[in-house]
Design a protein that fits this description.
alpha+beta, OB fold (Dihydrolipoamide Acetyltransferase, E2P), 2 domains, five-stranded antiparallel beta sheet, 18 strands, about 30% strand, elongated, binds adenosine-5'-diphosphate, binds magnesium ion
Length: about 350
């Protein structure tokens, strides 16, 4: 295999549906285009249909209806091995008793490729991910990062044009997770392949994705760059799921305002009357280092200290130090009109 053999493909999903049983489908007529060579993250809460979508693309699950296209080829009914896709699983799922080389060569063995040839191809891929010198080691003799590279090489051995990753980082400890996430992104760019990565972590999706696809109850709620989705969540669900937003009912409808774009003033401070504002009570003060996170509750509701806050404000540490608040203190939450945007139901 030579290096130019890896070439990315686009994936398009048209009205793709999976109905496991009676009732609401697990995946409900979704439409999605993933550009060749891009990093796409499917994001959403547990049970929203991410893995089912990925498994249908991989060919590990049949579609009830709809189509899956790889470039312009309809792969909906092809067996998994004939699609040009490959899967990378949670915690890398390496075989513990096999060397790195044999782990990488494994699927070629299943396909009846001769030993010398499969070892040569596996060695070449291990070199490509800077693991050639550790080919004889077993997974337990490798660091987490090295294991991830072996898993990547193993997934790439069949020369897929799209790599599918189902929560590959979820079982790792937080420190390693952040490290491995940076590596994944680097390899995706270096290899130039199309990656479709399932995660329930918005932080992970924002760090990795060119395109983020936010799913809820088997449907796509919003799709766009992390910047677009974070700055303009289109629905209440996306605003709440992404976090960092206040969802506020106003006479004009429901709006979203980022928690770092609301200001908190003492109750009696003179304010610009043109600025939208809401009387609140401070329910929580959390020191977070560079900023202080204030939990807030609308005035007039029954006050409960440390109750789940209705709203939050991220106040820069220095601003807070100059004007601190006590739990139970009445205050005014206000924001620039331009900082708010309308959320649909
Ligand atoms: P996610 O990966 O987003 O957590 P899944 O795609 O695994 O969600 O599941 C979506 C829905 O489909 C859930 O309600 C789940 O219980 C259901 N489901 C998943 N796999 C199966 C299956 N093999 N048989 C029946 N129901 C399933
Ligand atoms: Mg899942």
């Amino acid at each position: 295999m030579n290096e130019s053999a890896l070439s990315p493909a686009a994936i398009e999903v048209v009205a793709l549906t999976k109905q496991y049983a009676q009732g609401k489908p697990a995946v409900d007529a979704i439409n999605l285009k993933v550009e060749g060579g891009s990093y796409c993250c499917l994001l959403g809460p547990s049970g929203c249909g991410k893995s089912t979508t990925l498994r249908m693309i991989a060919g590990h699950e049949s579609a009830t209806s709809g189509d899956i296209l790889l470039d312009d080829k309809n792969i909906t009914d092809l067996p998994a091995a004939a699609r040009g896709t490959a899967m990378m699983f949670q915690s890398f799922a390496l075989f513990p008793h096999l060397s790195a080389l044999d782990n990488v060569a494994f699927s070629l063995k299943m396909r009846g490729v001769r030993r010398a040839e499969r070892h040569a191809r596996a060695q070449e891929l291990l070199e490509r991910v800077a693991m050639g010198h550790l080919a004889a080691r077993k997974p337990a003799e490798l660091s987490g990062g090295q294991q991830q590279r072996v898993a990547l090489a193993r997934a790439l051995i069949t020369q897929p044009r799209v790599l599918l990753l189902d929560e590959p980082l979820s079982a790792l400890d937080p420190f390693l997770r952040v490290q491995m996430r940076a590596e994944l992104r680097r390899w995706q760019q270096e290899l130039g392949l199309t990656f479709i990565h399932v995660t329930h972590s918005q932080e992970e999706a924002m760090a990795l994705a060119d395109t983020m696809v936010v799913m809820n109850h088997g449907r796509i709620e919003q799709m766009g760059s992390p910047y677009e989705v974070y700055n303009r969540p289109s629905t209440e669900f996306v605003a709440r799921f992404m976090g960092g937003h206040n969802v506020i009912e106003t006479p004009q409808g429901k709006i979203g305002v980022r928690t770092d774009q609301v200001c908190i003033s003492p109750d009696d401070a003179p304010l610009d009357a043109a600025e939208p504002q809401l009387p609140v009570i401070v329910t929580d003060v959390e020191y977070q280092g560079t900023y202080v996170l204030l939990g807030l509750q609308q005035q007039g509701r029954k006050f409960a200290a440390h109750a789940t806050a209705e709203f939050s404000a991220m106040v820069p540490e220095a601003v807070y130090a100059a004007m601190p608040f006590a739990v139970g203190q009445p205050a005014c939450m206000h924001w620039r009109t331009g900082a708010a945007h309308v959320l649909t139901a």
